[in-house]
Design goal:
Number of helices of chain A: 3
Largest sheet of chain A: 8 strands, mixed
Distance between the termini of chain B: 103 Å
Low-confidence stretches of chain A: 1-5, 10-71
Structural class of chain B: alpha+beta
Helix content of chain A: under 10%
Structural class of chain A: mainly beta
Mean pLDDT of chain B: 89
Shape of chain A: elongated
Radius of gyration of chain B: 35 Å
Oligomer: heterodimer
Number of strands of chain A: 19
Order of helices and strands of chain B: EEEEH
Shape of chain B: rod-shaped
Strand content of chain B: 25-35%
Largest sheet of chain B: 2 strands, antiparallel
Helix content of chain B: 10-25%
Largest interface: A-B, 41 and 38 residues
Mean pLDDT of chain A: 73
Number of strands of chain B: 4
């Protein structure tokens, strides 16, 4: 039974509750979030096969819940609109998928709002015949072993792959690859290697001819940051965040010896980034003043004269 | 947003930075336009949270005594020289008039005719 998890964490009031279904129809603009952001507790919501079960904890553990194999929705209280409102209120979301479990429709529509395309229901399994783990997936080739990701641009620090040992690999078992749109707010964290492709395990044909995506088109872990800095991460394989893969020895096909997996550190980085522990900038102060020789030089004056020389200083801090 | 007058990179300001935090600054000349202006920082990079800060200032015109003084303007020197020459000439004439003897030594006596 493959787990599927959804984790929401915000820093709003502790008693954030989605409205219960006493409203007869889903009112699209009903926002259950309180308008004040006074308290700073956090709340974890997880869904299970029993609808409307809400677990309020104040820990930040990833909550993976095994779900039954029948297709189920997220319940009437987690519509895409409510999740979008949650993100508009600066909430962060981490979503994991798995190739064996159907993705709920509300989640698929939420992802298409963010310009992330998934293969049709349960038809996406990322497979690589050159980079798979020979010890666990010798036949099915669906456990990918990838090098930890590098920096996404030369001027940006490597958040997710830094500190990896020389031979460490990331295991990505039985996951779904997503195709990212060209939104400026979307960044792939982990891309599939060039020899990977997404295939439909139910199709029995010998040759896979219409592919959802192949190679680096598939984003296995993708990150979205809204303009108000709310973060949303989609991890294509829920199993890669399981304890069993944290310290496993995986041997790549064709490789000589077993390599340790980087999954524990990667899980820490991904959840740390999503929940505002890593990579958060805060501006402490911004100050401007006149740069000419005057007797009194006040800080942040409200009026200047044309053609004055001004110095403006900002203090951004990584918190 | 209106197109900005200046679009400048901020450089690391070692004077205000310490080991735990760093300050970035830019120094520039305000444009030759009066009005209400914003100093905006708009920094968006992948995986870093977005920074958008705005400070609003007014920019006024030159005051009457902030224009360059006329003796600083080289094109005005002929006129200033002219004024100086006029003043000096007038004073020289006054001095000459006051301290020179009247013309003609003999006094013409007026005859009283009865």
């Amino acid at each position: 039974m493959v787990p599927l998890g959804l984790l929401l964490k915000n820093t709003m009031a502790d008693n954030w509750q989605a409205e219960d279904s006493s409203s007869p129809s889903r009112t699209p603009r009903a926002s259950p979030l309180p308008s004040s952001t006074s308290a700073s507790g956090h709340m974890t919501t997880s869904f299970s096969s029993r609808p409307r079960q809400r677990v309020n904890t104040s820990t930040s553990q990833l909550y993976n819940i095994p779900v039954a194999n029948h297709s189920l929705g997220l319940g009437p209280n987690l519509t895409p609109n409510i999740l979008v409102d949650f993100m508009n209120a600066k909430g962060n979301v981490l979503v994991t998928l798995s190739s064996g479990v159907a993705t709920p429709n509300s989640l698929v529509s939420l992802l298409s709002e963010l310009d992330i395309q998934l293969p049709a229901d349960r038809t996406g399994l990322v497979v690589d015949h050159f980079n798979y783990d020979a010890s666990t997936a010798a036949e099915t080739h669906d456990v990918l072993l990838l090098p930890p990701p590098g920096p996404v641009r030369p001027d940006v620090k490597n958040f997710f792959g830094a500190g990896a040992g020389k031979d460490e690999v990331l295991a990505f078992p039985r996951g779904v690859g997503a195709a990212l749109g060209s939104s400026e707010l979307l960044t792939p964290v982990l891309r599939a290697p060039r020899t990977a492709y997404s295939y439909n395990p139910k199709e029995q044909a010998e040759v896979v001819d219409d592919l959802f995506g192949a190679g680096e088109q598939l984003a296995l872990v993708s990150a979205f940051q809204a303009r108000n800095s709310a973060r949303f991460t989609l991890v294509g394989s829920a199993e890669m965040l399981q304890d069993k893969w944290f310290d496993a020895e995986a041997s790549k096909v064709g490789g000589k010896k077993a390599a340790k997996t980087f999954n524990r550190e990667f899980a820490k980085r991904v959840s740390g980034w999503t929940f505002n522990e890593i990579g958060v900038l805060r501006v402490n102060w911004i100050e401007h003043h006149l740069d000419e020789a005057v007797a009194v030089n006040e800080s942040n004056p409200s009026i200047y004269r044309i053609k004055n020389d001004v110095v403006s200083t900002a203090n951004p801090v990584t918190s | 947003m209106l197109s900005p007058f200046h679009r400048l990179p901020l450089h690391l300001d070692a004077a205000h930075s310490s080991a735990t935090e760093s300050a970035y600054s830019a120094s520039f000349k305000l444009p030759d336009q009066h009005g209400i202006f914003n100093f905006k920082v708009n920094y968006k990079r992948p995986f870093l949270s977005n920074i958008e800060e705005k400070n609003t200032v007014s920019v006024r015109h030159m005051a009457h005594d902030e224009w360059p003084r006329s003796f600083v303007i080289s094109g005005a020197w002929p006129w200033i020289a002219g004024i100086g020459v006029t003043v000096a000439g007038w004073l020289a004439f006054c001095a000459l008039w006051m301290y020179s003897a009247p013309v003609g030594g003999k006094r013409v006596e007026s005859k009283k005719t009865q």
